[in-house]
Amino acid sequence: MAIEQQREHWSSRWAFVLAATGSAVGLGNIWKFPYIAGENGGGAFVLVYLLCIAAIGVPIMAAEILLGRRGQNNPVATMQGLAREAGAARAWSLIGWFGVLAGFLILSYYSVIAGWTLAYVVRGAGGAFQQADSTEISRLFADLVADPERLLAWHTLFMALTTVVVARGVSAGLERAVRLLLPGMLGILLLLVGYAWVEGDVGAGLRFLFTPDFSALSWDSVLIALGHAFFTLSLGMGSIMVYGSYMRRGSSIASTTLMVAAADTVIALLAGLAIFPIVFAQGLEVGSGPGLVFETLPNAFGHMPGGRFFGTLFFLLLLFAAWSSSISLIEPAVAWMSERFRITRPMAAGLSGAVTWVLGLATVLSFNLWAEKKPFWGMNPFEFVDYLTANLMLPLGGLAIALFVGWRMGSAERREEFDALHPVAYNAWLWGLRVVAPTAVLVVFYNAVFG
Ligand code: PHE
Question: Which protein residue has the closest C-alpha to ligand 1 atom 9?
């Protein structure tokens, strides 16, 4: 019988910060945030989103790291163990199951979109956007998504990239990947912001992002902003919990949380500042939905000096961002499978990758053969899975985490995890978790459903 394997850990506190930032910064920041801000009117939406990050996202992120670090196990076993420790109902372990399920569902469509970025790196480098007129560029995108075989090929390649990293384990896989990907992302992003500053209409970009027009805001937009706060911080589904479980005791949860949340927010705003000035300078539309960065942006790059180089860099940035997030989407499932069934990491990664790959077929087909099939409240499978996970499952998972840590966990155990934190900060966090976050989630849910 093999001796119980020691659980792997991050090599330092910084490695956790890098990995959690890598998880948080993803397609959500660079693909989704700009287009939902565009569809929901800009400024006012951005303001609500920032409020949700600060008042709801930050307290829940600290709670999720706390659970993971205390549990030292995969999300399912962590929640079972901590519920037992607190003398609470076993049902709390549903939080862990829910996370594994949400991870599969999110990654199933995330990987298809990430596949588009792979295709666009190749196209950008090949010069496909140069001198093409806007109808040709739109046709490039339309042709790609209309072809299930091509979408499937890119989805398969991206899932392979994800699986290979996760198969190698915590230090040789996850940590190694984020150490390479994050500096790359930051460098490219800064270059692109500089480029937008020189070549784009920065004033128009800033006005769009920061001038609130509340008449453009409905309760549905508020729900989208709330859901996006969870999505962009990777909250409510066990990614941050499982990353927290590879953290050693002794580093501050509070300052780590603030660093990750701040980095994610700054990067989302910087991405907006790289994208909108370019779109506005070319007189293009910001409300074009999921195609914003795949149609509108290549169109703009195609007409700008140095556009081939910077356009390719942009899609490389998107690819790196997606990759460092996808590994965290699948990690809860991989950790659970390998620890629960004592199978090797490569085996668990292969199995989880295969499950996600199959689920991804629904998204692949949503853009072509099933595009007109909208059986889910007027949504096609891709739109439905996105809405279900980001706007419903993540806030609900976050709500359950807030209630468990805020009300159900023993107060001594909870306090112990924050040993050095000032009592005022601790209490602010605790009441944010107990009252502010749950109330906000429920009010937004209520109004989005019945409002
Ligand atoms: N935060 C990632 C992004 O913004 C997506 C994600 C969601 C990753 C949930 C992990 C968990 O793209």
Answer: 234
